[in-house]
Amino acid sequence: MNIVMNVFNWLIAAGPTVLLPVIITIIGMIFGLRIDKAFKSGLTLGIGFAGIKLILDFMTTNVGPAAKAMVERTGAHLTALD
């Protein structure tokens, strides 16, 4: 029982980038996909999810300071960030 709990704790600690492909692979196998197709689908989704997360992190870290610098330079008041 302790081994099962350790596996679940590791999966949860790994984050959504690891957990989502595992879940999609399991769901694919439940719906009757072969293991190779289910794994490929889970892996593809995981790569796409990691790419979207990478782009969003890049945008938030670079656009935020640029918007703040623009506000300080122009004196504009940005009440919301679109």
**Shape descriptor:** elongated
Mean pLDDT: 88
Q: How big a fraction of the residues is strand?
A: under 5%
Residue windows where pLDDT falls under 50 for at least 5 positions: none
Q: Please state the structural category.
A: mainly alpha
If you compute it from the alpha carbons, what radius of gyration comes out, rounded to the nearest whole angstrom?
A: 20 Å
Distance between the termini: 48 Å
Structural domain tally: 1
Helix content: over 70%
Main pleated sheet = none
Number of strands: 0
Number of helices: 3
Return the string of H and E elements.
HHH
Keywords: Cell membrane, Membrane, Phosphotransferase system, Sugar transport, Transmembrane, Transmembrane helix, Transport
InterPro entries: EIIC-GAT (IPR013853), PTS_sugar-sp_permease (IPR004703)
Transmembrane segments: 12-33
Subcellular location: Cell membrane
Protein topology:
Blueprint: H1 2-14, H2 16-30, H3 35-74
Helix pairs in contact: 2-3
Structural notes for this entry:
The protein is mainly α. The chain has one domain. Helices cover 83% and strands 0% of the residues. The protein is built from 3 helices and no strands. The longest helix is centred in the middle third of the chain and has 40 residues. It is elongated and about 60 Å long. The chain starts with a helix and ends in an 8-residue tail after the last helix. The mean pLDDT is 88. Its main location: membrane.
